[in-house]
């Protein structure tokens, strides 16, 4: 394989979220074998990207600890390579207004994500606070009212259970992707990690066959399909594994290093 770029999801892929050890930063949950694999990839001239649903401010410790300066955040709405913005697609105000209207009518909390922070607003905020705690993510700014912001918004999250997520289905411009029992991403239908990846490949003059991607969740399906080799972690959702070219070991069993070695990347 003539791989030039590699895209890695964070939670459940780079970071072992299910580890029982106490930790003060994400880097403490990154297997040493993964750190070594990323170092060796860079030595081979392969640029590693973090590709995550998180906002940029949520991955600062990983970028520093892994010595990575290229990333795709907020499920493809904002992408940077070597500290230069390569692609961005903030939500249109009209769509934000419609999301707010539905959330307000149904007493559903919303998490707004600009680049540098996030804001929790609306009723039943405990739904999303619980989801953030489960993912070891920092607490957001709290607002009691449901109001828009002048910041560019790159991600919207709603606090709804599986039984109630249908309230957002009438929004034709939105895909509802669940990442926690009480939390869903409200993704622009035309946007995904794959959209950003394809934009990056085009700017670099690379073909999909020159890219590889690693993931574990449902929001990684398009990403794995967009590249020449899609790798599902051993701990990945079973549906994602169906779309993978290769299934490696779980993150807790050195899955990234194992795949890179088996596929001849390092």
UniProtKB/TrEMBL annotation:
PROSITE patterns: COF_2 (PS01229). The lineage of its organism: Bacteria, Bacillati, Bacillota, Erysipelotrichia, Erysipelotrichales. Gene3D superfamilies: 3.30.1240.10, HAD superfamily/HAD-like (3.40.50.1000). It comes from Turicibacter faecis. It comes from the Bacteria. InterPro entries: Cof, HAD-like_sf, HAD_sf. This is Phosphatase.
